[in-house]
Specification:
It contains 8 helices and no strands. By secondary structure, it is mainly alpha-helical. Helix 3 crosses helix 4. The chain is elongated, with a radius of gyration of 18 Å.
Amino acid sequence: MVNGLNLYSYADDMKRQQKIANNGHAEGFPERLVTVRKERNLTQQALAETVRCALTQLKRYESGASQPTLDVIKRLAQALHVTSDYLLFGKNERGPDEDLRLQFEAVSRFDPEAKKVVKQVLDSMILQQEARRWSSSTS
């Protein structure tokens, strides 16, 4: 959220992931869920019981026929011992580009006041960029 504007919504991210997955460019949420479950040697039944959802519903999540709520994603991540970001986003879908990663690592070592300034500058630039994008899409 930047200055009260939610720039990215969960639903939009899920739709984008599904679209990417369907075009074969990246593994989507359903595929990552199946992969991690199998890596943990869990059956669908065992995982469904652990996260307190019906087996048929878990099968829908794994097939991509249904999307879990945020609460269910949280329980899935906890049961599988991964982050929700790992389940939701592909390897390069989230986080800074490689060329910015070192700068963000350096900023993470700043004192709290300097971090606050960097965050304000970034928020301002993001808002400015989004405003440009919105204005160009309405023109």
